Amino acid sequence: MKFVTDFRKTAIKYDGSDISYKDTIKWSKSFGEKLDLEREDRVIIFMENRPELLYSFLAVWDKKGTCVCLDESFDSESLEYYLRDADAKYILTSRKNEEVTRRAIEDTGVSLEVVVADDIEDTYEGEVDYLEHPERDAVALMLYTSGTTGDPKGVMLTYDNILVNVEGLDKYDVYKSTDSILAILPMHHIFPLLGAGIIPLSKGATVVFLKEMSKAAIGECLKNNGITMIIGVPRLYEMFHKGIMDKINSNKVARTLFSLCERFQNLSLSRKIFKKVHEGFGGNIRYFVSGGSKLEPQVAKDFLTLGIEVLEGYGMTETAPMMTFTPGGEVLPGSAGIVLPGTELKIADDGEILSKGRHVMKGYFKRPEATAETVRDGWIHTGDLGELRNGKLFVTGRKKEMIVLSNGKNINPLEIEAFIMKNTNLIQEMAVTEYNNLLTAVVYPNFQAVKDEGVTNIRETLKWGVVDKYNNGAPAYRKILAIEVVGEELPKTKLGKVRRFMLPDFLDGMNREEVEIEEPEFEEYRVLSDYLKSVKGRGVAPNAHLELDLGLDSLELVELLSYLESTFGVDANEELLLEHSTVEKLARYLEEHSNEIVDTGVNWGEILHKEIEVELPKSNKLGILAKVLLKPVFKLYLKHSKSGVEHVSDSPVIFAGNHQSVADGAILNEALPNDVLKNSYYMAKVKHFDSPKMKRIADNTNVLVVDINKNLAETLQTLAHVLNSGKNVVIFPEGVRSREGRMGEFKKSFAILSKELNVPVVPFGIRGAYEAFPTGTKLPKSGRVEIKFFDRILPENMSYEEVVEKTRDRIKEWVEK
After folding, report:
1. Could you give the number of structural domains in the chain?
2. Domain of 286: which CATH number?
């Protein structure tokens, strides 16, 4: 019956103190003297991670009671439910949580005794130098778990449920008495409670608690405490991973060495080459242990390359907790390991993971119906989906999280999320869900990466530069049709798992009208706020993000920068908006740096006529050559036809057309006379022309290479320079190619150029290109493409909006005829 004995060494480290096993036992006995318990009497433990939490736990077990561990962050209202449900005899709490505890007891009227850990003194004077555990068939632990619906349920675990997990780990020699284990996760979850607390103490290891949870404190602890094992969640290891890989990728030698180690996959070699990485973790790490949710396989793979094994397992509170585990030396990134001894596991016909054995809970406290629904014929139904490959488990999704579309198609959101996250560093968190009947990506950006890469167009960059890459290769029913970019973290459990069922309410809250917030009273804020209210036609909160919350598009950001310069007399650029991304932050900057406020509004004419240095392409000879080479293709394969060419002339114009395919530029080139073509200039994003070869092509095809994330105003000024030089510009006002064949909204940049420079717009429409060459295909299909030029639109006596509307309507009527 002995569980913890005197190993004659340090058991717990906390806040500069080393607490021996002997003292841990004495303190636990002293705590036990405050408890009058019979078998399976329940004791609530409600306190933060600290030695007293373990003293409390061990004391209850030593007295043959049942531990009920609760989240120490509960307020009194949240705590009330658990006080009513648990039928506990005592609640052991800390001074920090005493007031919350007593208020909840008073409000509920339940009868249980409060024991404040800080008031307990070391009074034990007995000779016993060990602590006992409950009997094997007794309920030793009750933890609450909640699903997407209903009240939280108390999971009753016997000591034997827990013991079978311990025996499985013992087979693989996971814990050693020489281990020093960092307890970083809250211990009301079974994974850290057992993995970083109770089991290590039973093996003679040392548990290290952190009083302060910060990056600096974690680093200091790792270096000074000989940590050999960290029990953490994927987010922790992803944080470590990012910091390490950023440094490696910024150094050519380090990248080469990493590639070398990646090829050989030899732990000993990797540990020598990346000795500094290991020293950063204190130099003693045997394993990282990851649980709570699935770790991104690339993270596990990269740590292996660095010489660090990340051991993953799979389980749930109801299985105490593990069903599978990865022994040292058998890490396979993406896998949750092998089935533990004494555990049966199988995959049901619908893909659900089922398990049977000594590890399966006794049941849910006072909920026989819920127990019968979860455990059927001895098999626990996990609700997770998975596959067994060569004896290893791969978790593929959550049954309840599968999205079932109206056409009956099933979508696993985890697969989509993994694909997108793997291909960008601009996203901190994301989740795919169905929202407003559309498959929606909810994205919380990595604002540091956004800042480092100079991205000022966050929403557009994520939508077209990230999510659209996934859509291009996805079948129609799996395409993401909407993207919600949010300014705060997604709702998650304490272990970092996204609470997907909460996403609709989360988004509703984001999209709801702003609540009344007390606004700053200084003049710069008032002027800026009034301007933004006029632009968006709604209220503006001080903490509103200029792009994510207010939805300022590219042109509105340019207008804002111009307004800041003319009204406040400051030098304004995209970097300023990155550094001061909310209304109040920007206003505070203006308060500090502006001399006087002269509200003159936005003057596009002034913006466009600003003198800048522009180096135009040398010629369009490659464009003319490409036209010659492609003529047979357009004549025989795509059957190109044109009309309205009489509306095309030599004088400077803006060609504005709909955007159906990647071939639209070539279709327009084929239709334009050569003398017009050689004087016509296109815009292209810098990412498409960033190699020396592509730059040479751009320089000889009248392509103006622009970066929309860096000085968009300069892009428009470049186009204005071209038009003022007597040349033509070609603009596709939708900004992106059609994804479904329908025309999108036209952005007004071409109308601003037309109006302010008094340059006519020649609308042109393209038909058949989407059907021949839709987005995501590599080669066009044979078909018929048509292009038609329309009467010029003269901007005099018209607003920007009227120019846009008239241009779009002419094209749309013909294209969708």
Report:
1. 4
2. 3.40.50.12780
